[in-house]
Specification:
Layout (H helix, E strand, L loop, with lengths): L5 H13 L6 H10 L1 E2 H7 L4 H9 L8 E2 L5 E3 L5 H6 L5 H6 L5 H12 L11 H16 L9 H17 L5 H6 L5 H12 L8
Antiparallel strand pairs: 1-3, 2-3
Helix pairs in contact: 1-4, 8-9, 9-11
Length: 203
């Protein structure tokens, strides 16, 4: 039988993208503090929830970031902000991909945005996506810099780490399941701070 309920179709699509992983009580608590329930956001914005679900299923708005264990579709509070800035949902793809000089890169980022998996940013915009990519690349390559280990190098490294720390939320255990391992915060913030602590000059 063909499934017509947008809520059920969206839940199935979410699991196709993210896998079918359990949400713990701790996951639910984290998500409820970081995201909002789709129906509540739609009510606040005078939007029809099922119409928004259809836009997600059609690849015109991003999928929810999480499905809470009670089935609630959890989305960022600024879900509609980029479409509003672009001038509407129809204008959003061209506006979004236009932030990348390489059309293929722009299309890849658009697909990633639609997946709803940009839960790695407190605010998802082309600017923050590009900045995160730049910072993680620099942090990952830092050990190969000519002055690696010096005080100046440590300061540069920690400035990058601190900036990434401000861009990214804490993540939750569910994220490590669906992404199949550590998050960028784990590898580029927590681990790098532990490996390369910032020395305090007491002279």
């Amino acid at each position: 039988m063909h499934e017509t309920d947008p809520r059920a179709r969206l839940a199935r699509r979410f699991r196709e993208v993210n896998g079918d992983h359990p949400m713990t009580g701790a996951d639910d608590t984290y998500v409820s503090t970081q995201f909002v329930v789709l129906d509540e956001l739609c009510a606040d914005r005078a939007r029809d929830g099922d119409e928004v679900r259809l836009l997600m299923l059609e690849g015109r708005l991003p999928l929810p970031g999480y499905l809470r264990s009670d089935g609630a579709e959890m989305v960022p509070a600024d879900l509609f902000a980029l479409a509003d800035e672009a001038g509407g949902v129809d204008q959003l793809p061209a506006w979004f991909t236009g932030h990348w000089a390489d059309p293929d890169a722009g299309k890849a980022e658009w697909d990633a945005y639609l997946s709803g998996q940009y839960v790695c940013l407190r605010s998802v915009t082309p600017a923050t996506i590009r900045r995160k990519e730049h910072l993680t690349a620099e942090i990952g390559a830092a050990e190969g810099e000519p002055d690696a280990g010096s005080v100046a190098w440590l300061r540069r490294l920690h400035a990058r780490i601190d900036e990434l720390d401000l861009l990214e939320p804490e993540f939750t255990a569910y994220d490590r399941l669906r992404f199949g391992g550590p998050t960028s915060r784990d590898t580029c913030v927590t681990a790098m701070r532990a490996r390369f602590p910032l020395r305090v000059d007491r002279t």
